[in-house]
User: Fold this.
Amino acid sequence: MNTALHSFIPVPEQSDFSIHNLPYGVFSLTPQGERHIGVAIGDWVLDLAVLEQAGILVIDAQQSYFNQPSLNAFIATGQAQWKKTRRELQHLLTSTESPLYRDAQLRAKALIAQADVILHLPVEISGYTDFYSSKEHATNVGCMFRDPKNALLPNWSELPVGYNGRASSVVVSGTDVVRPSGQIKLPDQTRPIFSASRKLDFELETAFIVGKSTALGQPIAIENAWDHIFGMVLLNDWSARDIQQWEYVPLGPFNAKTFASSISPWVVTMEALQPFRVNGPVQQPQPLAYLQENSLDGMTQSYDLHLSVEIQTPNSLQPEVICQTNFKHMYWTMAQQLTHHTIGGCNVNVGDLMGSGTISGPTPNSYGSLLELTWNTTQPIQLKNGQQRGFLHDGDRVIMKGYAEKDGIRVGFGEVHNQILPALNFDFAVTQVQHEAV
Assistant:
């Protein structure tokens, strides 16, 4: 890590967006305005389309890569270009000889306060997959709903379990989330009812963005997997626990998971995260050969990322931290997830999103969902305003944050935040329920 880098753009000491980060995002100045690609630096957004137009940051004179509504075209240029662009941006923001420093007019045009922009979904997502890779989370859920002595199913320690989710309902931070409705099977009734979810939950996750497309039938070898990953975002993979409990047998999650998955707007590149690599947990039994990853001292590769969840209720003036955990606890790595995802021949596309699965740590305050934090409402969370929470109420706002820090250098994700809106009123459903009750 080059700790000597210093941007001439003022960066607050605890900012997630230091010169060592430079995450990419998509922004506009008005809701319907033209979208550009920018990088975050301190409290500012550097408009890369302006630099491109000025001939300062050019990949191809015949094509624009930054006057774009998504990062996909830039990501598709490949890893060598990602690294080259990052070096050029760091030079532009640190050197007193750079045109950005010497040209006040250009600087005024290219730098926009983050408070003045609207952030959008950073990538076009053609496919979304969610994994289930936290051993602590899987064990907690298994203890709650199965035999605690056999909390993990036999396949869990052999492969990264996952399911294909719904890409169309991935939304950016700040998007309101409508409480879903569906079939719920109450314990004292023989048939399900139609109702708004009564057990709406968050899931603290990260996600990686695929940086290189593959052809159908072409697996990604474990030794090449990291070359196919562009960067990471925070992910809140919302879950309606009561709808899920009834519908998931035999084919897994469906409507309980498709109503929304929220991601943070800034994509932190894997290059920015390299200084924070750590060994992952010991994997026992040793995975099959195609999943064996030897990157750091024969161990799997993880990242020391501090993660937290805050809740702000309608009656609270400030959000309150209810969970703190770390990505380094994850059992299965991103490389193993991507390799296993493609081992059967599934192709992936630039911009595809791969969720980590709920990230839980070894202690009760490090559990990454309300299901675990409240042990399915048997131990409700007591908030400072006197309220309790088993699951989320309408009007609650959930904020997830994440960062890495080492040797005085901070690289962060910002946050993903959303507010819960009441369920839609389905008159036909109410009529049906009343009729069946009669």
The two ends are 70 Å apart (CA to CA).
